[in-house]
């Protein structure tokens, strides 16, 4: 700005108001970045949401998945049964 430019008090007030808004936005952004606890809590919520999206919502979903593919369950039952029979026959 040169010496010949004259600003009105309203223009100066508008500039001050704009500068205050920008300073407030900057301070808010810095405060958010330094809020470690808040950022950690947000991350925990994100992880919870991701985990719950991968886990069946209820027992009916789990039953439907087992019915669609029963072989792993049958295999687990056979292994546990064989283990229990082996322990039982090894007892004196």
Textual characterization of the structure:
This protein is mainly α and 92 residues long. It has two domains: 8-55; 58-92. It is built from four helices and no strands.
In short:
With 92 residues, this protein is mainly alpha-helical.
Q: Could you describe the largest sheet, including whether it forms a barrel?
A: none
- How many domains comprise the coordinates? 2
C-alpha termini separation: 102 Å
**Which H/E pattern describes the elements?**
HHHH
How many beta-strand segments? Answer: 0
In the predicted model, the low-confidence regions spanning at least 5 consecutive residues are: none
| Class inferred from helices and paired strands | mainly alpha
What integer is the average pLDDT? Answer: 85
Helix content: over 70%
Q: How many helical elements?
A: 4
- Gyration radius from CA atoms, angstroms: 33 Å
Give keywords:
single chain, 92 residues, mainly alpha, 0% strand, rod-shaped
Show the helix and strand layout:
Layout: H1 9-34, H2 36-54, H3 59-68, H4 71-90
């Amino acid at each position: 700005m040169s010496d010949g430019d004259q600003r009105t008090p309203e223009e100066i007030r508008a500039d001050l108001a704009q500068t205050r808004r920008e300073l407030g936005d900057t301070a808010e952004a810095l405060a958010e970045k330094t809020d470690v606890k808040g950022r950690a809590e947000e991350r925990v919520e994100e992880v919870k949401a991701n985990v719950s999206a991968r886990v069946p919502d209820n027992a009916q979903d789990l039953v439907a998945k087992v019915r669609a593919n029963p072989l792993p369950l049958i295999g687990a039952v056979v292994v546990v049964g064989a283990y229990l029979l082996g322990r039982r026959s090894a007892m004196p």
